Amino acid sequence: MASTQIKDFENDDQARVTPNHELLITGNVTVLNPQGGGGWSNFGQGTPAQIAVSNTSTALLAANPARVFGMIANNSSQPIYLQYGIAAVWQTGWRLMPGGVFIINMNELFQGQINAVTQSGTVNIDVIEGVM
Fold this sequence. Notes:
Layout: E1 4-7, E2 14-17, E3 23-26, E4 42-43, E5 49-53, E6 58-61, E7 67-73, E8 80-84, E9 94-96, E10 101-104, E11 114-118, E12 123-131
Antiparallel strand pairs: 1-2, 2-3, 4-12, 5-12, 6-11, 7-10, 7-12, 8-9, 8-11
């Protein structure tokens, strides 16, 4: 059985779990609880913000490896469609109805770009990103 190594994306801090289930830590390592409770302490990418979404794919959040939480709220009167990592297309991906909220948390964490599109006109979508 091999060791599992976890390395920080910004520096050389790392943690390793040995075959005997020992946790060895080098440097400053933050361990997030995948069952919740890890929390976040800062807003990322200039959020909270309102992003104008039209019938052309619009980036709501750029890719961010530091993301641990996200919330997209459709406070408009039109549905929007969300897409992970590729251009958003009307009636493809995740539909977010008026008054709906889309949550990104540690259970289903996506750190890539998130795009949105609406059928016609322009709507303002509320976006929050939480980072460590």
